[in-house]
Design goal:
The protein is an alpha/beta fold. The protein folds into 2 domains: about 1-15 and about 65-105 and about 155-235, Rossmann fold, CATH 3.40.50; about 20-60 and about 105-150, SIR2/SIRT2 'Small Domain' (2-Layer Sandwich), CATH 3.30.1600. The protein is about 35% helix and about 20% strand. The chain contains 9 helices and 9 strands. The chain has a 6-stranded parallel β-sheet, sandwiched between helices. It has a 3-stranded antiparallel β-sheet with strand order 5-4-6. Strand 2 (about 80-85), helix 6 (about 90-95) and strand 3 form a beta-alpha-beta unit. Helix 5 (about 65-75) runs parallel beside helix 9 and helix 7 runs parallel beside helix 8 (about 190-195). The two termini are about 15 Å apart. Bound molecules: ligand BJW and zinc ion (ZN). Zinc ion (ZN) binds near residues 112, 114, 115, 117 and 140. It holds the Pfam family SIR2. Belongs to the sirtuin family. Class III subfamily. It is found in: Cytoplasm. It catalyses: N(6)-succinyl-L-lysyl-[protein] + NAD(+) + H2O = 2''-O-succinyl-ADP-D-ribose + nicotinamide + L-lysyl-[protein]; N(6)-acetyl-L-lysyl-[protein] + NAD(+) + H2O = 2''-O-acetyl-ADP-D-ribose + nicotinamide + L-lysyl-[protein]. NAD-dependent lysine deacetylase and desuccinylase that specifically removes acetyl and succinyl groups on target proteins. Modulates the activities of several proteins which are inactive in their acylated form.
Length: about 240
C-alpha cells in the first residue's frame, strides 16, 4: 500500500511548537504571521523577521518528535510512505521517516537574499527570545535570510514535483494538522480526491477540506495516528 502524508503545523503542536495561526501567547503574538512570513515584512523589518525565525530555529532544536511523527515513521514497516510537509521543522526526519519533502523550506537552512548563496556560517546565539536580531551579512553585502518559502514566493521545484508524484501514486492520503488554506499545498488533497484516492483528514478542528475528505477524524495527531493504519479498513467500511 502506498500512503502519502500531507502534514502541517498541527502535527508538531504536541511537541511544543506553536502552530502558524494559533500562537496567541508567544512574544510574536501581537505581530501578524502573514507579515512575518512575507518578503514585504522582511524588507520592512529584517531584524524582526530574523528574530522570529531564529527563535523558532532554537525552539525546534530543543523539542522532540511526538507519537504522531513516530507513528508515521513506523508505518514504513507496513507500507510505502511518503511525507509531504508544509512544516519547516525536522521532526518527521528525527522520528525516522525517510522520504520527507519540505514544501515550505527549513528552519535549519539559510541563504543570501541577494546572491542566493547557501549560508553555513555562525548564527547569533539566543539565550532569551529577542524581538529583533541583526541578520548576518553575506560577503556580497546582502542579508542572510532563512531558506523558507514566504507568501508570494514559488515553492522549490523538486519537493513540489515529488509531492505531486506522491499524491498521484497514493492509495491513501493522510492529511494531518493543517488548516488546509495555503496553496498550492492545499490543492494536493483535491488532486488525490479527483483521482478517486481515499483522503483521511486528522484534525481536532474542521477545515475547508473536512466536507470533501473521505473520512475526517476529529482528534489530535498523537491520538489518531498510532492506531490509524489498523483502523483504516474498519473506518472505510
Ligand atoms: C492539530 C493539532 C493536533 C492543532 N493534531 N492537528 C487566494 C487563493 C489561492 C491562493 C492564494 C490566494 N491569495 C494568495 C494566494 C497564494 C498564497 C496562499 O495560499 N495564500 C492563502 C493564505 C490564501 N500562497 C503562496 O503565496 C505560496 N506561493 C505561491 O503561491 O507562489 C506562486 C508563485 C509562482 C511562481 C512564482 C512566484 C510565485 C507560498 C506559500 C508559503 C507559505 N509559507 C508559510 C510560512 C513559512 C513557514 C513558516 O514560517 O512556518 O508556511 S505560511 C504558513 O502556512 C506556513 C505553513 O507551512 C502554512 C500552512 O499552515 P498550517 O501548517 O496549515 O498551519 P496552521 O497554523 O494554519 O494550522 C494548524 C492546524 O493544526 C489547525 O487546523 C489546527 O486545528 C490543527 N491542529 N493541534 C492535529 N494536536
Ligand atoms: Zn550574497
Amino acid at each position: 500500500m502506498r500512503v502519502t502524508v500531507l502534514s502541517g503545523a498541527g502535527i508538531s503542536a504536541e511537541s511544543g511548537v506553536p502552530t502558524f495561526r494559533d500562537d496567541k501567547n508567544g512574544l510574536w503574538a501581537r505581530f501578524d504571521p502573514y507579515e512575518l512570513s512575507s518578503t514585504q515584512g522582511w524588507h520592512k523589518n529584517p531584524e524582526r523577521v530574523w528574530g522570529w525565525y531564529l527563535w523558532r530555529h532554537y525552539l525546534v532544536a530543543d523539542v522532540e518528535p511526538n507519537a504522531g511523527h513516530r507513528a508515521i515513521a513506523a508505518w514504513q514497516d507496513h507500507a510505502e510512505v511518503t511525507v509531504v510537509t508544509q512544516n519547516v521543522d525536522d521532526l518527521h526526519e528525527r522520528a525516522g521517516s525517510t522520504a520527507v519533502h519540505h514544501l515550505h523550506g527549513s528552519l535549519f537552512e539559510f541563504r543570501c537574499d541577494r546572491c542566493d548563496m547557501d549560508y553555513t556560517g555562525p548564527l547569533p546565539r539566543m539565550a532569551e527570545p529577542a524581538l529583533e536580531v541583526e541578520p548576518p551579512v553575506c560577503h556580497c553585502g546582502g542579508l542572510i535570510r532563512p531558506d523558507i518559502v514566504w507568501f508570494g514566493e514559488a515553492l522549490p521545484d523538486e519537493p513540489w514535483q515529488r509531492a505531486v508524484e506522491a499524491t498521484q501514486s497514493a492509495d491513501v492520503m493522510v492529511v494531518v494538522g493543517t488548516s488546509a488554506i495555503v496553496y498550492p499545498a492545499a490543492g494536493l488533497p483535491d488532486l488525490a480526491l479527483s483521482r478517486g484516492t481515499i483522503v483521511v483528514e486528522v484534525n481536532p478542528e474542521p477545515t475547508p477540506l473536512t466536507r470533501s475528505a473521505t473520512i475526517s477524524i476529529r482528534e489530535g495527531a498523537s491520538q489518531a495516528l498510532p492506531e490509524l493504519l489498523q483502523r483504516l479498513p474498519a473506518l472505510l467500511k
